[in-house]
């Protein structure tokens, strides 16, 4: 089955001889325009500190049921950062049009005292 996609593919060689490809969708998926969402927040307070994070979700098609992948690096606090990554929940319509997505998870483990933080929130409205 062929699905028309407008975007580009990046090829990456890893140091272990493996390689990967990432597809970046820029304007359409199967003829539907794509959109992204801004997201951000503050992690839980653990081991004496918290971290802030923000970013943009990966693109997804508009007008159909969908979720978004997301990832971001936290702020540098207490001598370290963490990564967050995951997949949002489904689209939740908002008054006045558009939609948001909820997300939650745990950061990667890092720090002098190895630990992770919990995070949760909702994206902003869709952006073309």
Number-wise, the strands total 12
CA-atom Rg in angstroms: 17 Å
Strand fraction band? over 45%
Poorly predicted regions: none
The rounded distance between the terminal residues' Cα atoms is 27 Å
Give an account of the 3D structure:
β2 and β3 (32-42) form a beta hairpin. The mean pLDDT is 86. The strands form 4 sheets. Strands 1, 2, 3, 4, 5 and 12 form a 6-stranded antiparallel beta sheet that branches. The two termini are 27 Å apart. This protein has no helices and 12 strands. The chain has one domain. With 128 residues, the protein is mostly beta strands. It comes from Cohnella xylanilytica.
Topology, please?
Layout: E1 5-13, E2 19-29, E3 32-42, E4 52-56, E5 60-61, E6 69-73, E7 83-87, E8 92-93, E9 99-100, E10 102-106, E11 118-122, E12 126-127
Antiparallel strand pairs: 1-2, 2-3, 3-4, 3-5, 3-12, 6-7, 8-9, 10-11
In short:
The protein has 128 residues and is an all-beta fold. It has strands spanning 5-13, 19-29, 32-42, 52-56, 60-61, 69-73, 83-87, 92-93, 99-100, 102-106, 118-122, 126-127. The strands form four sheets. Strands 1, 2, 3, 4, 5 and 12 form a six-stranded antiparallel sheet that branches.
List the defining traits of the structure above.
single chain, 128 residues, mainly beta, 6-stranded antiparallel β-sheet, two-stranded antiparallel sheet, 0% helix, 50% strand, flat
